[in-house]
Amino acid sequence: MTLALEWAAKGMTSTAPNPRVGCVIVRDGQVIGAGHTQPAGQAHAEIMAMRDAAARGHDVRGATAYVTLEPCNHHGRTPPCSEALVRAGLGRVVAAIEDPNPLVAGQGMARLAAHGIETASGVLADAAYEMNIGFFSRMRRGLPWVRLKAAASLDGMTALNNGASQWITGPEARADGHAWRARACAVLTGIGTVKADDPQLTVRGVETTRQPRRIVVDSRLDIALDARVLAGEPCWIVAAVANPAKEAALREAGHDIIMLPNEAGKVDLAALMRELGRREINEVHVEAGFKLNGSLVREGCVDELLVYLAPSLIGQAQGMFALGPFESLEQRQRLAFHHIQQVGDDLRILARITK
After folding, report:
1. pLDDT in tens, 171-215
2. Residues with active-site annotation
């Protein structure tokens, strides 16, 4: 199963909206076939592994398949993998974790068992869940998994008061941040960041099979038509106040305008997350300023923080979040450290929001 997870990781940037799945087929302790899920509409991991076995001249009848997610049992963009495994005559199928898709949810393993194939599950389930945390989120909650990234000094400052922020962290941390950006389905920022930094929000310096969708929260459609984020693949611009002329110009350039106003005339961020789930976005990577960061946290839209802390002190400057002021410590947002690692000279902290 560890090897199957390694194969699943090969689809880190290519399988969405489908989950990243790996499969290895074993006979007498030897791997005779392996594969991972291809882009949407193409073969799933089990099919790729059986094709690999056939290409190597192996017969999979009676062999054991280790797959990182329960084989699908429904007709979607492709036929059911459980049906293909039955036809191929596999003797045993071991799944890491049950598929959260209600169209599957145990039915894939049930179909295998009904045809005499031995089944087992729960092997490295936690690792398999982490591999597809966004897919699980969308299937279970109808929402993407939202990861908010920030780079700060040890005293929590992300930029000087004049806006200077390049570079607080080192090159290794910046490359690592691009790897996290690459795995996301979408990168989200606010108009404040677009105006201040004119970012591209593309993946650079690390290998990726595609660029994630770029989303700009821009209540009044203040974005300049020559902003760098608008170059290349179309963007989704999320607004709250109509501006027919700007909307027409943006749509003419291929961009999508999503109108989601709240009662205050700002973008309804919770509604935005529901809309992204509806649009089959599994993981959202946020790189924004302290105002939008604070709003996303305050409105319960963030699942985890990806924070890079540099071994430096900046002093009075711009922080990571516009929150508070609180009157009591009971009002603070609580977190749980999930993973901590040194990356170059900097510290990477993955901390999850506790509800």
Report:
1. 999 999 999 999 999 999 999 999 989 999 999 989 899 999 999
2. 46
